[in-house]
Design a protein that fits this description.
The structure is a single chain. The chain is an alpha/beta fold and about 350 residues long. Among the domains are: about 90-160 and about 195-200 and about 235-345, no CATH class; about 165-190, no CATH class. About 50% of the residues lie in helices and about 10% in strands. It contains 12 helices and 8 strands. The chain has helices at about 1-10, 15-30, 40-80, 85-100, 115-120, 135-145, 150-155, 200-205, 210-220, 220-250, 275-280, 320-345; strands at about 110, 125-130, 180-185, 190, 195, 250-260, 285-295, 300-305. It has a 6-stranded mixed sheet, sandwiched between helices. It has a two-stranded antiparallel ribbon with strand order 3-4.
Amino acid sequence: MAFTKHKAVTDSGLPSLNQARAERRRAIALGRVRMASIPPQFWLWTAIALGVFSVVYWRIAQGQIETRRSQVMAKQRAIAQTLGPKIVPFRDQVEGWVRELAANYPGDFVDPSASLDKISTSPGVYFRLRMANTGSVKAIRGAARASLHDGFTSCLFVRVGATDPTKGPACRATSDCASGLLCNEWNTCNEPPRPYNMRLAYRALRVLSSDWTDEVHEADTELGLNAYDRDLDSVSKRDVPVAIELLSRSRYFTLVLDEDPAGGLPPETPDAGETPDERVQREPHAARIGIWDLKTRSPLLRLKADAAGHFVPVGDRVVQNPETVMAQQRQTNSCALALSVKDALAREPVQAAP
């Protein structure tokens, strides 16, 4: 009797409804449920709305990027107008002297007023590059990145109380250094070098170059433009003022142009990490040296000499590391070149057309 009652409850309702429920349960279990279809117009309008949103968002973002770009370029123009006239003419003068010394060599010359003592102890500017990189202004500026203090500066100039330029806190820009220190060519925070390396002046001037401007125009994110803006601030507040101060106090400009060896550029040594300039400097080769008085803009010395020295290791422990041996030979050749300059300045002046 109980079973009959339960059966009656279960089967209550219209038979057609019960059958529909059973079929739906089977469809759900077998994954064959069909949702009510959505009108195609819904997807069309959804796509249109997303497209309009994307275009509006892109235009707003581009507007913000262009506004930021304009701000950065305006700051660059302001720097070019205020600081450019104090350093750009010096750069142009130096590039003129480079082309002059690289032209047909008229012969050695020593001004009677040239003093080795004054040249070696007074504040000055130094620039060294390969003759092969003097064909154009662009080539000269590109080669400036390889100009370093070397055996020539160590043997010619007196550096009283100077610290090791390779020692100090690591840096990528002068803004990383404490006040009074400069991020030098070895990427360490140190006192401004003596003589001042022209490479640092070119580094300061890079924010005024057309290459830097092109990079700003190609930047396609606000984050990237912010990085260029910080670069401008760092250079304009630290690098350029230091360059202007040192260049204004400098008395002499010394230029070294390395001619490639007779046999051409020496082959690259695997894993040595040498630049083409360094490969030339470790081989015996000829070089042209020019020294100018920055106050009178007149030449004091023009000399062609051989950069060829013989390094003799002493002591019980002889360095065998190829990289170290090559560095020692570069320094020896450069020092031999500096000794030739000292000898020329100590002799009776050579009277020739300047």
